[in-house]
Amino acid sequence: GPTALWGGRFSSGPAEAMAALSLSTHFDWRLARYDIAGSRAHARVLTRAGLLTDDELRGMLAALDVLEADVVSGAFTPVVADEDVHTALERGLIERAGADLGGKLRAGRSRNDQIATLFRMYLRDAARVVAGGTLDVVEALLFQAQLHPDAAMPGRTHLQHAQPVLLAHHLLAHVQSLLRDVDRLRDWDARAAVSPYGSGALAGSSLGLDPAAIAEELGFDAPAENSIDGTASRDFAAEFAFVVAMLGVNLSRIAEEVIIWTTAEFSYATLDDAWATGSSIMPQKKNPDVAELTRGKSGRLIGNLTGLLATLKAQPLAYNRDLQEDKEPVFDSVAQLELLLPALAGMLSTLTFDTERLAALAPAGFTLATDIAEWLVREGVPFRIAHEAAGDCVRRAEARGVGLDELTDAELAEVNPALTARVREVLTVAGSIASRDAYGGTAPSRVAEQRDRVVRRIEEY
Ligand code: ARG
């Protein structure tokens, strides 16, 4: 017989192209186990409402167990006539429990409240997986920071040499943004933990069912306050898509730096062979494909977010079939991150930094000029004049092709009488870095504290 859940008022089945357009099992089948969990909870509230006997409940739950085992083993799969995951699973239930019992489960629920609930369940699990993978990337960065606690590097603004910083401080900057992404996933979960089950098609249930009981059984914090909102809202999906797009953007900024760092010109780091690729024509090539795919996929994650927002825009309440388009973009974002995060963690943890080169480049480009200015300020010179004097030092050193620390005592005195030989004490990379010792700064003691706080934060997750 027909498997559609809505055949009664129709004199014919759907046209072929209509059915093909409608079909969603190729992507919503991954919700099958969540659907079955929802069915178990629903069967229990039907029983409590007196709509199933205890015997019927036992039979229903036994059939759902068999169905789940068959879904997991692959013995039961959707057929073309099954419009969506819900249709397929009702067919599977009826095949296992018989039409009389199997046909009772649909009372008081709609695919509209079902899909809104299952999608939330799926995304809440996905959020935990993505957060775990993100923490693996964090661990990789932390590993490198711990491996190189004292290594200096040129800190940059505008990609130009700015001031020396610790490599560990730079790596921990990326850690900070990734930990915010993990926090965002957790904050999101508090809003996503609301169950639309019991909202029905849009107006709620008339059969004395208890949405709070289902919500609790499915691990939600509460049932939806409003059945229209429960079935029609997808901001939980859009917010999830944003959080993972933001994560993608943060990852792409790390990736971009690895791409730059591993060029011949920078040579800050080399990629491990296992995490690089070669060229089919140029035998010498070692390419940073993991980093490039990270950068590339971040664009895809942004597209998934904007596509979903465009789908949601201007849809009248409550459910519209447009909403079937809500799932693939978010499923795709999750699938891409599941591929990306382990590869990125592997690539980052196996990078080899050339710390000697980083240290040698740290003072290049007169990155200690700010230290001259600040030394003069400590000597009582107004910053406006100190800045001017330090700039004068840069101009002279550049003209002579020497470093700031190589200016003679006479040259220093010519620039400003307050500029004595003692200034050379701050004209070292280590001295400059150590002087930035306010909370959050790059001084080794502050970076060590920061790293310890990060480690504690991760332990608490
Ligand atoms: N497959 C639909 C979706 O993904 C859920 C079913 C609701 N369909 C309906 N005709 N009311 O949104």
Q: What is the fold's blueprint, element by element?
A:
Blueprint: H1 16-22, H2 25-28, H3 32-48, H4 54-73, H5 85-97, H6 99-102, H7 111-147, E1 152-157, E2 160-166, H8 167-192, E3 194-195, H9 211-217, E4 222-223, H10 227-232, H11 235-261, E5 269-270, H12 289-312, H13 327-349, E6 352-353, H14 355-361, H15 369-378, H16 383-400, H17 409-415, H18 429-435, H19 444-460
Parallel strand pairs: 3-4
Antiparallel strand pairs: 1-2, 5-6
The chain binds arginine.
Structural class: mainly alpha
Heteromolecules bound: arginine
Q: What name goes with the CATH superfamily of the largest domain?
A: Fumarase/aspartase (Central domain)
Q: Given the C-alpha coordinates, what overall shape results?
A: elongated
How are helices and strands ordered from N to C?
HHHHHHHEEHEHEHHEHHEHHHHHH
CATH fold field value of the largest domain: Fumarase C, Chain A, domain 2
Number of strands: 6
The N- and C-terminal alpha carbons lie at a distance of 51 Å
The CATH class of the largest domain turns out to be Mainly Alpha
CATH architecture annotation name of the largest domain = Up-down Bundle
Strand residues, percent: under 5%
Question: Would you mind describing this structure in some detail?
Answer:
It is a single chain. The chain has 461 residues and is mainly alpha-helical. It has three domains: 12-107, Fumarase C, Chain B, domain 1; 112-150 and 165-210 and 225-360, Fumarase/aspartase (Central domain) (Fumarase C, Chain A, domain 2); 361-444, Orthogonal Bundle (Ribonucleotide Reductase Protein R1, domain 1). It has helices at residues 16-22, 25-28, 32-48, 54-73, 85-97, 99-102, 111-147, 167-192, 211-217, 227-232, 235-261, 289-312, 327-349, 355-361, 369-378, 383-400, 409-415, 429-435, 444-460, and strands at 152-157, 160-166, 194-195, 222-223, 269-270, 352-353. The chain has a two-stranded antiparallel ribbon with strand order 1-2. Helix 3 crosses helix 9, helix 7 runs antiparallel to helix 8 (167-192) and helix 12 (289-312) packs antiparallel against helix 13. The two termini are 51 Å apart. Bound molecules: arginine.
